[in-house]
Every structure is written in structure tokens, then in C-alpha cells.
Amino acid sequence: MANMLWLQGGACSGNTMSFLNAEEPSACDLVTDFGINVLWQPSLGMDMGENVQKLLRDCVSGAIPLDIFVFEGTVVNAPNGTGTWNRFAGRPMKDWVKELTAAAQFVVALGDCATWGGIPATAPNPSDSKGLQFLKKQHGGFLGANFKSKAGLPVINIPGCPAHPDWVTQVLVAVATGRAGELELDDLQRPKTFFKSFTQTGCTRNMHFAYKVSATEFGQRKGCLFYDLGCRGPMTHSPCNRILWNRQSSKTRAGMPCLGCTEPEFPFFDLAPGSVFKTQTMMGVPKELPEGVDKSAYIKLTAAAKSASPAWAEKDIFVI
Amino acid sequence: MAYLGMDSSNIQPTEEFPEDAPLRAQVEKLLHAGLRSEVEPRAYDPEMQQSVLARLQHVLAEEVAKRVEIAGFTLHPYAAEGIEEACETCMYFLSHRQFCALPELQLPVKPDWSCRLWRI
């Protein structure tokens, strides 16, 4: 039996909604098949008021062993570092977070807000929000760069806006069943199982990427969304086209450019006008190229690919 | 036209769109006749791109000369910093139809033409 406590800071509840839609395994499977005891969760917890306060105090003191602490949302520090803009169970949430992360065997940051700060931490960051161990790309965040939970791991980051439900439940199962050691984390503390490949990996528009045929408007079935519509699939680490959403599709399959929501810089360019759904270019060349490709190679590849493209690549074609 | 060793001149415009050839010839004739298009400033930054696109959005489809003028078409590639900005390498260019698929232009073109909305 592994005790799990889940709290929400500066959040929209999107990751809770995502979690409740998990299928492989489902939220119920965590309890019935994998021995996770949900001490409290914002949408599932039965206790209120004094009872929640006592539960949290018992977790901090060790009277109730806290195996997994899941945090969703940012750590709100405003105003003036007090954190009182986000009070919970009688005190600033950030004070609970500090004590509970120190008491937990494993700490999981769920969603962009908890991992990097996400949208709330976008400039000018009025709520003085931070992720648990990062603020955007800067290591440290609320807990500091040297933080390790009792089990000796840093915060396990599961980013996404929201995170895919099965990324969440599969990581929780690994932790709860004593296989946390198998969770190899990348430089941004994301499990490599999910975040080593790219969003583009498995995208059904890859043939259009290869032949440099661009989608020029939303709703087009043909064409790659990277060249003109700002898709970040080739630069974003996520399994969105390997582990499909609702077991059916993904953003790019449905014609929606990837927004790069599993990367710390999301939302990119601080949401400046004209920066969303538009590939940013410098003298006509994308400012950000697919990972590992330089400008000169990109230009040569484009010329070659367009010259070699077959006629069918320019025609309307089902990509889902 | 050869570009970086690639040759797309062997690709013939598809006959699936018979209306393309006369329109392409019309554009070519306009430019040969000395139509002064706005080749510069190039639409390199988002503000300039948006400005050019916004102007194009107000031009009727049949006003071909106006579209060619605003987009800054030339009958040869524009070159900057060692990069030839030819239609044939542009993201909006459909090689087989030889057509610019930028929604605001939608014009038959030739591989070695160029315009200031070029992007790769």
C-alpha cells in the first residue's frame, strides 16, 4: 500500500481532469490493482475543513507515512513572498508544499505549472509563481536545485498542459510498485520513457514534413504544420503521437499545431502577438529548426526534398 | 533552373488545372512589360509580413496585377546573404502544379520567380 496525497496550487484543475480520464491504467485501477491509497485529492477527497488540516499535519509529522506527494499547479509566492494569494487549509499553500515535500518519499510535479511555472509564470508573472524545481528553464524553482525527496530522487516532472492521463497513472504505478529506480530522468527531470522522443515521432503528417509540403490554413488535411503554422512537433519532447489522446488522435493528426507544452519555455515568446500559430522566421528561415538540424543543412534539404516530392504529396489526403 | 544542384525544371506543370497556364502567362507578361512590384522591403519580420498580407487580403482575386505588385514578384530569384529566395524552395510552392498556395496569393508561378513573402 502506497499513500498518495495530491494538492493543487495555482492551477486550472486541468491535470486532475486529465487524471480522471486515464485508461491504462485508470484512476480506479491505481486503487484496486496497484495498491495506491489516495489520502486526499482535490476532486476525490472526502474530507473537508479541520479533517484535511489534521491529515496534512499528520503527513508532515510522519504519523501518516507519505509515500507520494503529487503537486499540480504553481507554487504561488505573491504578494511579497508571503504566498497568501493561495491559501489552503488555514495557511499559505507554499508552506504546506515546503513541509510535505520534505516528508514525502517521492515528489511528483504534474503539469506545466507545477514543473516549470507554465502560463501563470509567464512574464510579468504577477503571482510570483514558480514550479517545484524549475522556473521555466532555470533549475531551482521553489524547492531549490539540490532538493531530493526522502527516496533520493529529485522532483519527478510530468509536464504537459495538461499531461496525458496515462503518463500520470503509469508513473504513479511505477513509483507505487517500487520501480521508481527504473524511471530514468532527462536533464529536465522528465521520465525518458515518455519524453525522449518528439511530438513529431509518429505524426501522420511526417510525409508532408519530409517532402516540404506545408499546410497553409487550419483544417487542411494535407501538409505539415511546422513550416507556416507554428507547429513545435519537431522540437518538442512528448509521446503525443505514440500514446494517443483518448486512444484516438493527437493535436497534429487533427490539424492543430503542437504548442510545445511539455517544454519549459511554454508558452513560447511570452504569447507575444503574432507568435502563436505562426512559424517565427528570420529572413524567411525558421528561427527554430528541428532539433539537431542547422540552417545550411535545412536549406539544402528543403531544395532537395521539394525537387524530389511526388505529385501525390501535394494532394488532399487523409492523415488520420 | 538549378538551385543548389537541384533541378526542378523537369517537373512540368500539371494539366489538372487548365486555368493556371493563361494566368501564369498573364503574370509573366505583366512583369516583362515593366510592372513595378514592391520587391523591397522584404517581409522578413512578422510586422512586415502581416502588413503585406493585410494589404493582399483587401485585393480582389481578379486584380492580378495588384497582387503581383504588392507581393513584390520578380521573374528571377531575389538573393540575400547567399540565399536565393526562389519560388521553387518556398514553403508555399507546389512543385507539380507550379503554384503559390499562400492563401492570400493563390497564383500560378514559375520555379525561378520570387516574391518578398518567401519562406523556407
Automatic annotation (TrEMBL), chain A:
Record EC number: 1.12.99.6
Main subcellular location of this protein, as a coarse class: other
GO CC annotation: [Ni-Fe] hydrogenase complex; cell envelope; ferredoxin hydrogenase complex; membrane
Reactions catalysed according to its record: H2 + A = AH2
UniProt key word Transcription regulation: no
Sequence similarity: Belongs to the [NiFe]/[NiFeSe] hydrogenase small subunit family.
Quaternary context: Heterodimer of a large and a small subunit.
Protein name per its UniProtKB record: hydrogenase (acceptor)
